């Protein structure tokens, strides 16, 4: 008896009509990417996807991180005949520990002489006759025992939830502003989960922020890569920009002006690499710079859409996701970030665009941005 994994993809992919093939192809490619390095076999049987490997646990661990997969089922492959189906269904039920069950059959192999309703009935009756303490519950069974009659027959009742979303790489690209904090890795994960390809930018204020702060961001990018298969991180030297702002601008406007620079640099990099949008981990009201006025003023310099998937999320919920996706432990490591070092004592929470534009106009904006982009480091393979 061979155990395999049946891969069920998100129902949204079914709704894609003529584009369905494109999404399926990408999903398959992404699965291949995460399965690199282990021996496995991919089996297509009339629209069903099965994956076989000696190491089923590792296979599942990896497939659980692939966006677009809704469910993974551990199936047993048997020869197609009723005796085999009976005994395997009984084993499956006993092993499950469930008290109530329901049998569901799908007969894709029309050469098999008994129709699916009949098979379900026969197997149900057999299970009741040959076991004790089980009952049928068609509405809310503890276990659904599925029988797929194809060339071979596949039986399963064990289902593992996949992470859902859309296949990575099917919905354009975004440049994520990735800090060492809790929010931005979650924001990146959420964009990636909807199929958007991620690149990341980190603003590094050497020597005010240490190598360790940079390593922390690299580590976060590496964790995200576990979901995306590949990732690029641009590390931009930000000290000159911050020093110029400190030197020439009002203290209470430092943060907002700095955020406008972050946005300008991000757009410049996005433009250079044909990335259509920018994403941040901002959430309305969370800190002084994330007021509606603050967001409006920093958004003003963007030349492309800026996505903020966490804008309406509470911090507690963001933290929950961060734990679930595995970035939390790294995010809470206590290394300084560039914003905490340059925070004004009383930052403006309601900046006025015209005033900010006037205040920053004394700076050589274009050359500061260009210079930062020219000096950035690129990390890809080593992540
Ligand atoms: P996070 O937890 O993501 O750091 P935060 O709550 O600390 O967010 P801010 O520090 O105000 O909030 O940053 C808001 C957003 O700006 C971040 O989510 C991130 O997208 C971006 N950002 C902030 N600092 C940096 C940085 N040093 N490099 C890259 N992006 C940054
Ligand atoms: Mg931060």
TrEMBL record:
Q: Which domain of life is it from?
A: Bacteria
User: Which reaction(s) are listed as its catalytic activity?
Assistant: [ThiI sulfur-carrier protein]-S-sulfanyl-L-cysteine + a uridine in tRNA + 2 reduced [2Fe-2S]-[ferredoxin] + ATP + H(+) = [ThiI sulfur-carrier protein]-L-cysteine + a 4-thiouridine in tRNA + 2 oxidized [2Fe-2S]-[ferredoxin] + AMP + diphosphate; [ThiS sulfur-carrier protein]-C-terminal Gly-Gly-AMP + S-sulfanyl-L-cysteinyl-[cysteine desulfurase] + AH2 = [ThiS sulfur-carrier protein]-C-terminal-Gly-aminoethanethioate + L-cysteinyl-[cysteine desulfurase] + A + AMP + 2 H(+)
- The record places domain THUMP at 57-160
Q: Where is it located?
A: Cytoplasm
Under the GO molecular function aspect, what terms does this record hold? ATP binding; CCA tRNA nucleotidyltransferase activity; tRNA binding; tRNA-uracil-4 sulfurtransferase activity
Q: Mind telling me which PANTHER family this protein's record contains?
A: TRNA SULFURTRANSFERASE
The name on file for this protein is Probable tRNA sulfurtransferase
Q: Which organism is it from?
A: Clostridium acidisoli DSM 12555
């Amino acid at each position: 008896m061979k155990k395999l994994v049946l891969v069920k993809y998100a129902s949204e992919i079914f709704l894609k009509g003529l584009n369905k093939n494109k999404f399926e192809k990408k999903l398959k490619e992404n699965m291949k990417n995460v399965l690199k390095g282990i021996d496995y076999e991919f089996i297509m049987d009339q629209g069903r996807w099965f994956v076989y490997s000696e190491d089923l646990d590792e296979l599942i661990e990896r497939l659980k991180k692939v966006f677009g997969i809704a469910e993974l089922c551990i199936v047993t492959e048997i020869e197609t005949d009723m005796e085999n189906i009976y005994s395997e269904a009984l084993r499956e039920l006993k092993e499950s520990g469930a008290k109530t069950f329901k049998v569901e059959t799908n007969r894709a192999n029309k050469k098999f002489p008994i129709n699916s309703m009949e098979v379900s009935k026969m197997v149900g009756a057999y299970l009741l006759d040959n076991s004790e303490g089980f009952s049928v519950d068609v509405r809310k069974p503890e276990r659904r025992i599925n029988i797929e009659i194809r060339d071979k027959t596949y039986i399963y009742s064990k289902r593992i939830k996949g992470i859902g979303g859309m296949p990575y790489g099917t919905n354009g690209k975004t440049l994520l502003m990735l800090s060492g904090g809790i929010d931005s890795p979650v924001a990146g994960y959420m964009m990636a989960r909807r199929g958007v390809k991620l690149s990341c930018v980190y603003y590094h204020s050497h020597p005010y922020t240490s190598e360790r702060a940079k390593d922390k961001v690299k580590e976060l990018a590496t964790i995200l890569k576990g979901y995306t298969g590949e990732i690029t991180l641009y590390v931009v030297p930000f000290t000159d920009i911050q020093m110029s702002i400190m030197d020439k601008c009002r203290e209470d406007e430092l943060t907002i002006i700095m955020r406008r620079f972050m946005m300008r640099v991000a757009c410049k990099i996005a433009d250079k690499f044909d990335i259509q949008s920018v994403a941040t981990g901002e959430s309305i009201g969370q800190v002084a710079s994330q007021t509606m006025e603050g967001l409006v003023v920093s958004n003003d310099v963007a030349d492309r859409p800026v996505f903020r998937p966490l804008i309406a999320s509470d911090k507690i919920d963001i933290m929950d996701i961060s734990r679930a996706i595995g970035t939390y432990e790294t995010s809470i490591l206590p290394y300084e970030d560039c914003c905490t070092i340059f925070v004004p004592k009383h930052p403006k929470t309601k900046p006025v665009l015209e005033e900010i534009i006037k205040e920053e106009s004394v700076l050589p904006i274009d050359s500061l941005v260009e210079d930062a982009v020219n000096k950035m480091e690129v990390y890809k393979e080593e992540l």
